Structure formats: structure tokens, C-alpha cells
Amino acid sequence: MRGRDGVPAPRAGWAYFFDVDGTLAEFxxxxxxxxxxxxxxxxxxxxxxxxGGAVALVSGRSIADVDSIFHSPLPVAGQHxxxxxxxxxxxxxxxxxxGALDAARVRLAEVVARHAGLLLEDKGLTLALHYRRAPALAxxxxxxxxxIQRELGSAYATQPGKCVVELKPASMDKGVAVTDFxxxxxxxGRIAVFVGDDATDEHGFAVVNALGGHTIKVGxxxxxxxxxxxxVAAVSAWMAELSKA
Length: 245
Ligand SMILES: [Mg+2]
Hints:
By secondary structure, the protein is α/β, with parallel strands linked by helices. Helices cover 31% and strands 20% of the residues. α1 runs parallel beside α7 and α5 (174-182) packs across α6 (202-210).
């Protein structure tokens, strides 16, 4: 796969939605070890400035976690959109049923304690079970999460990702988060662009495809995105094309 063949260069009048891990930052053995390249941050800030603030991050991470990586209060949807900070800095939080995950949290802590290499990421409204350091436990991790989801019922869903499986409310995904932003200034009325690398980003791609925007998949694998960029470095290079436009 080559760099950024065919992907239209970014324009100041568009609205941008970026996933974080695997899209703007390379993966690390654990989520806490992920660092942002200075060039990516500079490109993102320039895009934010030139587009009149129409750049949002859409991540599975919590907003607090995203902020600790970017050191910059960009509009952001965290935990797949369950929490969101709009372009004015106003915070929104959706919690379908408080306390619903309490039993699941305890059970997953027990599972992680008994299986070396597994990591539980408690994001408050969602729970993630990471097996990047124990790939042999992939099937076991997915099986465990599906069993816990069945006990919680249809209000919750499992979300598979790269070396991770998450438990989250079924009513929220990145596509819903994008539509939340697109109802507001400065995103409203613009051509939307969604850039992501993983299964959870397909929800964002579906919404942006339906709106006639540009969807960009980072790396390989099946996707409904219209365009493809090879890597995090290719995303950074693509963002830099804005200055030439
Ligand atoms: Mg990702």
C-alpha cells in the first residue's frame, strides 16, 4: 500500500473528525505509554486554526485521557461519544444507567488478576480489556466480555478493536458522536471528514459516507471508508498538504 494516493488534500472549509490511537498516534504496549509526535500535533493545530476550529477528536479514551496526550483543549468526544466537549468548551455526559457496570468491573478485575498480560482500562462509562501484551488470550478475552455483556442485556454491547475488547452502552457510538458535533457550529453545514483505523471507526465512516463526506481508513483491513492512508505518518503528511491548498 502506498502513501496517500488519491486522497483529496484537506481544505479549510471542511469539518474534521480524527480517531486518536492508530490514527494520530502509534500504538504502544499499554495505552498509558502512547505519545503524540510533535509534527502531528503541529499539523492538527494548524488544521484547527485554518478551519475556524472545525477539528474534533473522536476516541474510545476518556476525555481526561485524551487531554493528557494532546495538552490542548480541542473539541473531543470521549468513550465513543458518551462524553463530549463541544467547540465552546461545554461538557456533555451520557450515562444510561448509573452503576450498571459495577458488577462487570469487579468481575473483570478478578479476570485480569488471574491472567498475566491482560489489562483492564476503567474509563468510567465503558470498560476495556486489553490483550496486546498477551495475544494468546485474545479469544478468551472476547469470550469473557461477550459473557459479561449477555448478563447486562441489550442495553450494552461489546466493541472489538485492535488487541482490545470493550463493553459500552449499545446506544452510543462514534457515528452518533459525529452527528452531535455536526448539529453545532463550526461543524454544521460543512463537508465532514472522518479519519480512523479500527472497527469502532466504521460507525463514523457510515455517518460521513451517508452525508457525502470523505472517509479515510488508516492502514489495512476491511472498511467502508472511501479513501486510505497507509500509516500515522501518512496522516501527518496529508494534514500538511493544507498549507499548499
Ligand atoms: Mg484507533
